[in-house]
Amino acid sequence: MNSHELLDELRRVRVVPVVSLPDVHSADPLGETLAEAGLPVAEIAFRTPAAAEGIAALRSRHPGLLVGAGTVLDRRTVDRALDAGAQFVVAPGFNPDVVDYCLERQVPVVPGVNSPTGVEAGLARGLPLLKYFPAEASGGLRLLDAMAAPYGGAQFMPTGGVTPHNLPDYLSRPQVAACGGTWIATAAQLIEGAFEVIGRNARHAVDIAAAAR
User: Fold this and answer.
1) Residue 131, SS3?
2) DSSP class of residue 42?
3) Which residue from 42, 142, 160, 164 has the fewest beta carbons nearer than 10 Å?
4) What is the SS3 assignment for 178?
5) DSSP letters spanning 53-114
6) Beta bridge partners of 41
7) Cβ neighbours of residue 192 under 8 Å, at least 6 residues apart?
8) At what angle do helices 75-84 and 96-104 cross, to 10 degrees?
9) What's this model's pTM, rounded to 2 decimal places?
10) Is 131 an active-site residue?
């Protein structure tokens, strides 16, 4: 998968569950729940020790699921993510070393930006999609609209503070390919095994995305 193919896939699903797996045993039921809900995608954050194993489990047991690695801060984590089978990499900021290493390894990378400087750095490297992060704390839609205006070719994935309440507004913007959401499968829900709740959250996100098309 290349960066443009990833962009096409994310435009199709419109919402990406951002997940911090508490343990590897949560991966299989999570993948099954998301697939059944019609949201076959997950960004597994490298914020817990289970991230790499969780990515590997999702890729082996749910081959139809699009699985990315999030919170990737250095080259070592890029290697761990790709060894586990991650299909794309997401970073909270624009670290040129991480971005360039991902390009060297030919894996789609979506670095975080919240300024024109970051957008230009991404466009200079030919990246078709950038993560707008932290979206709400940075200024929400007001900053996104202003920041995107000079860059007609840029596409964004707002993440951070996106909820079912503001998701329709974000998805209404033509420069927004998809949104990342942590509310769909929270760590507490995963620890409790609340997969019925996660399924409802995922189906609700799918319904919102469908209405916003």
Assistant:
1) strand
2) E
3) 142
4) coil
5) HHHHHHHHH-TTSEEEEES--SHHHHHHHHHHT-SEEE-SS--HHHHHHHHHTT--EE-EE-
6) 66
7) none
8) 40
9) 0.97
10) yes
Token pair 């507490």 is found at 188
Q: Which CA distances in Å does 202 have to 90, 113, 142?
A: 20, 26, 27
Q: Which residues contact 167 (CB under 8 A, 6 or more apart)?
A: 15, 179, 181, 205, 208, 209, 212
Length of the chain: 213
53 counts as catalytic: no
Report d(CA 181, CA 90) in Å as an integer.
Answer: 13
Active-site position among 32, 36, 104, 131 = 131
The list of the chain residues with pLDDT below 50 reads none
**Residues 9, 36, 43, 120: which is the catalytic one?**
43
Cα–Cα distances (Å) from 23 to 4, 19, 57, 213, in that order, read 32, 11, 11, 35
Q: At what angle do helices 116-124 and 140-148 cross, to 10 degrees?
A: 50
Q: What is the pLDDT of residue 53?
A: 98
